[in-house]
Amino acid sequence: xxxxxxxxxxxxxxxxxxxxxxxxxxxxxxxxxxxxxxxxxxxxxxxxxxxxxxxxxxxxxxxxxxxxxxxxxxxxxxxxxxxxxxxxxxxxxxxxxxxxxxxxxxxxxxxxxxxxxxxxxxxxxxxxxxxxxxxxxxxxxxxxxxxxxxxxxxxxxxxxxxxxxxxxxxxxxxxxxxxxxxxxxxxxxxxxxxxxxxxxxxxxxxxxxxxxxxxxxxxxxxxxxxxxxxxxxxxxxxxxxxxxxxxxxxxxxxxxxxxxxxxxxxxxxxxxxxxxxxxxxxxxxxxxxxxxxxxxxxxxxxxxxxxxxxxxxxxxxxxxxxx
Length: 323
Fold this sequence. Notes:
By secondary structure, the chain is mainly β. The protein is built from 1 helix and 29 strands.
């Protein structure tokens, strides 16, 4: 075989191996699991929902940043070191290329009704909209600054930039940017309640923030605020109850907030530098970035029922659904 044919043959093998995916061992478990990515090492953790214990930790081919469950064990993941979105198939136990874009891909938001995935591209200062069924880029939304958080509600895409302390609101029906306004310094976390956009954040150096703010999306003016803990970075609500849950990594605590009454109902301590929060009907789950633990909180009692030691840098969380 001459040299040119050898090069072509090796290239073909490389492409075929990428298409077949890289194997990941999935632990055997009767009930649903929690999948956790780690940003300080290239690993996944698998946690049993029913037993509330770590089942296994498996190596990942890449250091992972964000994860989004698009359907039935199909998880799209980003890696800032790679120029590709990957599909983690927990049924087949493989990680496969999903779509090649460019490096600098960070947070994601999935519009389940429209089957559209929105990806923050920090290299090009834009949001990439992807049709997950066609695996095609539908549009690129330029914002001229680095996007750090996304939220999709109905036909609105909210884009937060911590770099410029700005919120952008994109209307998906008209495919136009309909609003932008300045928010609190070094912002983090977003939650839209139907009329106001709640935002937390670190606040200015020397005067760190302890509040979440409700911005009128038409005027950009703060209409309401609630005092919580130091540096609220995640604001979370789901369909399972009416409370909003706020993670504060300045005091390592989770706050249960009644937005109608504008008050904190309860708070509890979690691990050091809590970062990511998800929930189901029974529990809330918190990844604690800097002490390598994973907290499980019972919703009804609002008490920590288990804290699990995991590998370094637990980050994004995906919850498997009950079958």
